[in-house]
Design goal:
Layout lengths: L1 H6 L5 E6 L4 H10 E9 L13 H6 L4 E4 L5 H13 L1 H5 L4 E4 L3 H9 L6 E4 L1
Parallel strand pairs: 1-2, 2-3, 4-5
Length: about 120
């Protein structure tokens, strides 16, 4: 937390994304988010144990926007990877725009404006 506060001048991040899939990661995420920021929970894709969560401190007081993200289970990921590996050129053709990490905002705007079929950010 100390490093995040230093990097953001004490403010916290605009968006934190939990992708680890652990209760510990989920519980830690809101601490990093600034007041009025957002927290996306994508890593917990199956039922886990209950998480002790201070709704007042972590959500209400911070006016935190929290969004759960559940797309599919791991079997769907395996199927997708299998399809891509069978025809990598076919899937590569779907990528219409490539951006550097410095151009991430432009990439998001391009997608939001529906000017790209698939945009990727390449470090």
């Amino acid at each position: 937390m100390k490093l995040v506060k230093e990097i953001t001048n004490g403010r916290g991040v605009d968006l934190a994304v939990e992708v680890a899939g652990t209760v510990e990661a989920f519980s830690e995420g809101p601490y990093y988010v600034r007041v009025g920021g957002a927290y996306a929970v994508a890593g917990i894709a199956e039922p886990r144990e209950l998480v002790p969560f201070d709704v007042f401190r972590d959500v209400a007081r911070k006016n935190l926007h929290m969004q759960g993200v559940w797309v599919s289970d791991t079997s769907h990921l395996r199927q997708s990877l299998s399809l891509v590996t069978r025809d990598p050129e076919g899937f590569a053709a779907l990528v219409t725009h490539r951006f550097s990490l410095d151009e991430a905002t432009q990439a998001m705007e391009t997608v939001a404006n529906r000017k790209a079929m698939k945009a990727v950010i390449i470090p």
